[in-house]
Amino acid sequence: MKLNPLDTIAANAGAADARTLFYRVFAVTLLLKLWLAATFPMTGDEAFFYHWGVYPDWGFYDHPPMVGWLLYVLSRVSNEPLVLRSVTVMLWSGIALGVVDLLRRLLPERTEVAYRTGSMFLVLPFTWALNLVTTDTPLILFVFLSGYSFVRARLEAQWRWYAVSGIFLGLAFLSKYFAVLLAGAYFVFLIRCRRDWPKLAVIALCALPFVAENVWYNATHCWNNVMFNAFNRNEGARWSVGTIVLYLGMMIYLITPWVFVGLVRARRAFGRLDFLAMLFLVPLLFMLVLSTRKTVGLHWVLGFMPFVFLLIGAVSDVATLRRYFRWTVWFSLPHLLALAAIVVLPVSVWKGSRLYDDMVFHKKTPEIVAALRVGLPDNGLVMARAYTPASILSYYAGEYWPVFGEGRFHARQDDVLVDFRQYAGRPIRIFDKRPIALEEVAPYFEKVSAGSFEVAGVTYWFADGEKFDYVRYREHVLKRIAERYYRIPAFLPVLDCAFLKRYDFPCR
């Protein structure tokens, strides 16, 4: 078909305008992310994972090791939030470039569509508002790189791209176990054609060494990752309609209502683009099933969002994408204002609101750390009663402050790092945001006393314990931890378990 020269000129002009818009949006959103990353208070999860970088290992209690390795490298540069969050800041911007690149390869005659899809992607709230460094940072990166390579393999029919896809899939697995959902997408797609089995085998073989590393780590470390993800965090899970509704609402929010409707209307096009559709349909349908029993975290699905927008770009016309972009800008604006308010407004502005206590704790943490050190004996140490305050306080203190007590099923890296035997006979100051009932901590010390202090009008409490009784703590706290969180199934071979050995508990 011969194109009208005027149509060609118009198309080229439209593509040029779209490309200019994309790079302007790219620059503006990147600057916003840099500002937010530099100024937003450190969160509990970030501070917790930061210490994985301080104490690097082949794995960690909650998840495989990738974010710890990443933070080890970044913390060698600086422990400032901007540096620690730098990869996350660049993440979504880089993915936007990948989305544009894939759409240009998929639709070489529709360059304008590629750039307008990329612009819309850049202004989605989660692509610039979520600048936190967590286990999801490397997961999202490697899931996209694996999917990008897979799409390249389908478009170019080159086996090397399947191998690259497998390598990135393995790296995603070393980031977080949700990578198996992408593997499931590959499996569902490739088994539909018998001739594609060898391609699936290439992906699997290239991912296998990374999986093997994690299996070895778990077998020699109490199967911590498996126990946490498959057993401990799912205690009490039950059927719930509310969690299903919450998941569906969350998906409409992330995708945006207009893109969601666009996908529903374009569902018949999924057949010719099934290699794209499977990359998000299989994972998101699995999450839907999971939502029948527990609340699905927003961050659990972020790694699969780029493939949603790849598909919507591939099935939408320019006029539609222009509307989507405008609506998404307005949708994102309240998010920006809310984050700016947290960063810019002084703490005093929040006084009288329910957020005030949290604002003080996160923005005045150095003052809290200083107050906790007042009157602390030379051989004394500080602990907190939950992992979030313990992690944040440790980050600003420049030393590791453990959790005192049983804690919960998550964030149990203390079980790996902390040896309570070394604290026998020492004074311990226990911090809490709420008044501490001395009768709860008194059994583990020779003598206890209570104290408190104020920072910006918020009261914090602590209990000073003299001569820590390790033996009693082992029998009443550590033993409960062992019985609750280390009930390793018989079918899992335990090659080593430092926590149980350290405190002389049986491995089964």
Describe the structure.
The chain folds into two domains: 13-343, no CATH class; 359-502, no CATH class. The longest helix is centred in the N-terminal third of the chain and has 35 residues, at 5-39. It is built from 24 helices and four strands. Helices cover 62% and strands 6% of the residues. It is α+β, with helices and mostly antiparallel strands. Strand 3 and strand 4 form a beta hairpin. The radius of gyration is 25 Å and the shape is globular. The chain has helices at 5-39, 44-54, 66-77, 81-84, 86-106, 111-122, 125-129, 136-156, 159-173, 179-190, 197-219, 224-231, 241-255, 257-265, 274-290, 305-315, 318-344, 356-363, 365-373, 387-397, 414-417, 438-441, 470-485, 498-502, and strands at 381-384, 428-432, 445-455, 458-468. Strands 1-2-4-3 form a four-stranded mixed sheet.
Short description:
The protein is an alpha+beta fold and 508 residues long.
Major sheet: size, sense and barrel closure?
Answer: 4 strands, mixed
Low-confidence stretches: none
Order of helices and strands: HHHHHHHHHHHHHHHHHHHEHHEHEEHH
Mean pLDDT figure: 93
Distance N terminus to C terminus?
73 Å
- The secondary-structure class comes to alpha+beta
What's the structural domain tally?
2
Gross morphology is: globular
State the total count of DSSP E strands: 4
Q: Percent of residues in beta strands? A: 5-15%
Order of neighbouring strands in the sheet with most strands = 1-2-4-3
The percentage helix is 55-70%
The radius of gyration over CA amounts to 25 Å
Distinct helical segment count: 24
